[in-house]
User: Fold this.
Amino acid sequence: MRQTWRWFGPADTVNTAEMCQAGVQGVVSALHQFKPGVVWPADEIAVRQRLIATLPSGAASGLAWEVVESLPVSEVIKTKADGYNDHIAAYRTSLGHLAAAGIEVVCYNFMPVLDWTRTVLRAPLPHGGTTMLFDLVDFAAFDLFILGRAGAFDDYPADCVEVARERHAALDDAARLALQNNIVAGLPGANDTWTLDDIKGHLERYAPINADRLRQNLVDFLAEVVPLAEDLGLRLCCHPDDPPFALLGLPRVMSSLSDYAAALGAVDSPANGATLCTGSLGVDPAFDPVAFIEALGPKIHFAHLRNTTRSAPAFGGRTSFFEAAHLEGDTDIVATLRALLAEEARRRAEGRADWSIPFRPDHGQDVLGDLAVKGMPGYPLIGRMRGLAELRGVIAGLGGDICAATR
Ligand code: DNO
Assistant:
């Protein structure tokens, strides 16, 4: 397993020396300065590669940009709106630039409008640290009484509406704005200034798009980019919906093993793969990481290892949850790693060059010195380092190699 770490670029509160000290072998990054639908210029890719390869002292870090997360799929592509061909052309050009730069793994998602969604970004834990959580009542309070989405009342049971009404009434203006900002914080750097009207505008564009249509749009996108990716020697890997259920009446189509089996089967190629995110998929009580790996292992090109604990209330296939420490929570991470190591052994026996699966300790609780930093929610230095250390311990205990030299 390749030990990687997400880095947001020069604005990140963590630097390359800290990554090395945390035990990181390779870097996951993206050019967040470019909006979805725009070409990533080759020279900007090279700039990011140089930054990653260099310590603050100017010496070589020994790190390389190994995974792109994300090359974002624009809303124009997801909805097949005007400008579709231009956005597809830009995506293809960016893939070419990334391949020419020697980067092979490209993560993306196909979630409409919102990426990962939480209602509280720094919820206090009994030990004094903080974590991110999703509370269905808070979310309903936003949907029903702040956004005032048409049709929202049909989405929640009557008792939930009443609790959400009380919750909303107890919030002052600042708390309402904070809840709104937390909910749209999911795309780092991309949409932190969204207004309620922006959200409503996005929702309107999805009015004619149900789950079947979105699924077809995903397959159409894959048909445009996967053959090229295969020619370029790239491995695309779709990130699951987070959380894995519909929100704000928007369809979500990458929430389960069967969703993945359908999307990967529709355009069958080694370049059409999955990002196994245990934290996203694991919110669904039906998720079985070992079954997922046994079914789709050869096409898992990247793994996000983290954990969640489901909490009340839950209804209609949706649940509240909080982000647990990496080895705690509802998902069996030891079993997940055992199955991933078995998949790696299978690939080695087959002679696959890409036998080593990159993973990153996804999200982390804010602990110790993180609490003073207030960096990107979910991406603190020490909380993630704790996660990486624990995952490395499990890998070593299962006989995996945690010391492979940096490329
Ligand atoms: C959250 C991340 C996601 C992920 C995208 C991939 O922390 O895992 O935002 O980067 O969904 O496209």
